[in-house]
Amino acid sequence: MVTGVLEPGGDASTALYIVSFSLFIFGVRRGTHPSTAKQGNLIAAVGMAIAVVTTLLLDGIGNWGLIVAGLVIGTAVGVVASIRVQMTQMPQMVALYNGVGGGAIALIAWAEIRHGIALGDELPLDTLIPILLSTVVGSISFWGSNIAFAKLQDLIPTQPLAVPGQQVINALLLVGVVAACVSLAINNDDISEPLFIGILIASALLGNLVVLPIGGADMPVVISLLNAFTGLAAASAGIALDNVALIVAGTLVGSSGTILTLEMATAMNRSVPNILFAGFGGAPAAAAGGGEERPHTSIGAQDAAIKLAYADSVVIVPGYGLAVAQAQHAVKELADELEKRGVSVNYAIHPVAGRMPGHMNVLLAEADVPYEKLREMEDINPELPRTDVAVVIGANDVTNPAAKNDPDSPIAGMPIIEVHEARQVIVIKRSMSPGFAGIDNDLFYLDNTDMLFGDAKQAAADIASEVGDL
Ligand code: NAP
Fold this sequence. Notes:
Elements: H1 11-30, H2 34-56, H3 64-84, H4 90-119, H5 125-152, H6 166-186, H7 193-211, H8 219-241, H9 244-267, H10 272-277, E1 297-298, H11 301-309, E2 313-318, H12 320-325, H13 328-340, E3 344-349, H14 359-366, E4 374-376, H15 377-380, E5 389-393, H16 402-405, E6 424-429, E7 449-453, H17 456-469
Parallel strand pairs: 1-7, 2-3, 2-5, 3-4, 5-6, 6-7
Helix pairs in contact: 1-2, 1-9, 4-5, 4-7, 4-8, 5-7, 5-8, 6-7, 8-9, 11-17, 13-17
């Protein structure tokens, strides 16, 4: 490869970086709708390829052995992972990639510090401060993301794990990190590498200690927050390295991660500090309904098939259990059978149904459910009072009317899919167990609700076959 043909900060490299980050922005814009999201990904990837090639062509790039080794290993891991990782493992894959990004930025910061020490000159504060920010935030993000990955992959217990005095230890570590950074900034003419390594280690401890006490089910929100952190660290590194593409890419990641974190918290009706510090969201809570049996009705696949086959309109509400059972194809078959009979079928998608943003959209897209049939909560709720049958498949919290009607409920105020307004409701799940929030669902006991107990995939397939036989 021809190297050194572009001058860092020169017109040609700046123009290429502008093209690359314009493609990032355009790619993110295309990512806002499922029908254009694939194209958006491709556009952003082209932008990234331009940024990488531009950087490699810059004057002063050396050590080609390491660069080629990095490219080969990174490409091999990325290709194998994209082929082998299951859709349901996507949150942990995102955690891992995010962590690697944060770790890479912390290492770049370390390399810059060593470079500064080797030159023996004073490191200007407008370079040193962004380097320190990248170090701290990148290291926290790397270690926090690894813990998130380990929890989601069941490598460590998913329950909140906290040591006594956790918050005090975290606060002391944070104060220590800030004090060490201030000391380095004051002595910027004689940077101490051991002190810098101390900052890296303390930030690593902080990353572990902040994420360990958070329950496994809250990990998607944590990953989104750490993703915002990695973006911030990257933008900071971009300032230190005077690399405009890194600044823009980091800012995009930081802002989109922040928006996603806030939207997820709002849709769960919780604050971000509550998610981070309340030790909520571990294994599903055991208690539901105070141990008291409440009367409910249950039906079999044949009765459900009759109700559905003779309906005019059906709304399917998928949830986490659909993902667990991998029932998306069976559900699509059921919808096809109903549509053959002239029944109108739509899907109601709650923003936090499942365990990651877009979880239901991804699963249903995999089963070739047309995008226009996936209706957002605000859009479908007004239609539910006119809907003949709402079928809740493996969903629970996102349909609990207590969120609307009971101000004392732990999920009070959380927006829900208002299935209780439908003329009839069929809930498919394996038992009366609670969902993620660990609370009983009033929907199950309403006069217009029938429970159909079973695995979502098997139940959907059974109903589809019964409808086909009618
Ligand atoms: P949910 O409230 O967790 O309920 C899922 C239900 O699926 C369970 O009650 C379970 O009941 C059933 N289920 C599990 N495996 C099943 C199977 N094989 N077949 C049939 N049913 C099965 O799920 P949700 O209604 O989708 O709500 C999502 C929850 O996760 C919300 O509380 C949300 O705040 C939280 N959350 C979401 C995100 C996100 O980004 N989407 C992130 C973090 C937290 P049985 O055991 O009786 O079958």
